[in-house]
Amino acid sequence: MGEARLTILGSGSARPTFQNSPSGQILELCDKSFxxxxxxxxxxxxxxxxxxxxxxxxxxxxxxxxDHCFGLLGLLSSxxxxxxxxxxxxxxxxxxxxxxxxQLDYYCKDLSYEIFFHAINPRKRAVIFEDRTVQVETVxxxxxxxxxxxxxxxTHRQPDGEGGFVRVPRKRYAYCSDTLYTERFVEQIEGxxxxxxxxxxxxxxxxxxxxxxxxxxxQAAKIATLAKARRLLIGHFSARVIDHTDFLNEAQSLFPDxxxxxxxxxxxx
Length: 269
Ligand SMILES: [Zn+2]
Ligand SMILES: [Zn+2]
Prior knowledge:
Blueprint: E1 5-10, E2 24-29, E3 32-38, H1 42-49, E4 56-60, H2 66-69, H3 72-81, E5 88-92, H4 95-107, E6 115-119, E7 127-130, E8 134-140, E9 148-159, E10 165-176, E11 194-198, H5 206-211, H6 217-226, E12 232-235, H7 245-252, E13 258-260, E14 266-268
Parallel strand pairs: 3-4, 4-5, 5-6, 10-11, 11-12, 12-13
Antiparallel strand pairs: 1-2, 1-14, 2-3, 7-8, 8-9, 9-10
Helix pairs in contact: 6-7
The structure holds zinc ion (2 copies).
One zinc ion binds next to α2.
């Protein structure tokens, strides 16, 4: 069983601060690099960390709020300037292609590589990507626009006893952002090795949090507990909270194995 590596490129919410860029992560699983969300500044953080964008395999976008996709046009343009030849596959709500195609046609006329948009239905749980070793499922979330998380599984084939094979998951990573507190996906992500759950606010701001359809640190910890996750990673922090140890303390009081997502950090599991 290989090691999974998760690189945090952005762990803030909608408004960027000096401390936090909007959402972006790279998951390396079975020698493939998956980019999850692409907020503004993602390619800059990658450059700062010395991560070669040429290594990116494909891209998953949770929803079409700017803090999760404003970095895409710049990144896709840079990939062409670097002479990328390998096609790029982007999995997102169908509207992303409608929004991005005209901009690509205008700004990136002679793209060095092909882009394939794969329309996903964020309201339905479905396998959206599968190859020999990795499977990706949508995790329907509850947000102000259609939004889904992603469950990445490293799988291997095992005989089913009837002459066929079944896929058995080994390592699993669940990315759940952005969402109002909901338990509806708990069963789907049960026992994951690592759960990323958004934690935009603290419990003291629960009313505001509910109004803008986000979760608190306590709620993220509650989901991790119910799902029997091995570890919880929290992020998508509001610019209103300056000291992030408040998020950590609140979550750890319910779920001790909690980590804070910090830009530039690499986690292995
Ligand atoms: Zn967001
Ligand atoms: Zn959002």
